[in-house]
Amino acid sequence: MSRNRLTTVLLGLAVAAAALCLYLQHRRVPAPRPEPVPIQDGRTIDFSGGSPVVKDSAADKAAMDRTLREMDAAARTVTFTADPPPKK
Predict the structure, then answer these.
(1) Domain-by-domain residue ranges, the chain?
(2) Per-residue pLDDT in tens (0 to 9) along the chain, 88 residues
(3) Interstrand relation of 53-55 and 44-46 (parallel, antiparallel or unpaired)
(4) Which residues, 6 or more positions from 56, have their beta carbon under 8 angstroms from its beta carbon?
(5) How far separated are the first and last CA of the chain, in Å rounded?
């Protein structure tokens, strides 16, 4: 085997071993778990800043009321029918 080919094979094995080590190390380290945020009636939780912030403004309440009315109106027209019994 020529010296260039041997160098290429050894370099390829070293890169593959390093990639495998990084992959296995990444799988071993668990991701930090976020703290649970209790759900409070009439309040919203804003995650846009990267962490949860409970908000209770008049604009949030108006948006929530409007959305609940829209959901109730949409749910009135939804019906589910039972599947027919299977034939023997």
Answers:
(1) 1-29, 40-80
(2) 688 899 999 999 999 999 998 888 776 666 677 778 888 887 888 888 888 888 888 988 898 899 999 999 999 988 888 888 888 8
(3) antiparallel
(4) 42, 43, 44
(5) 71
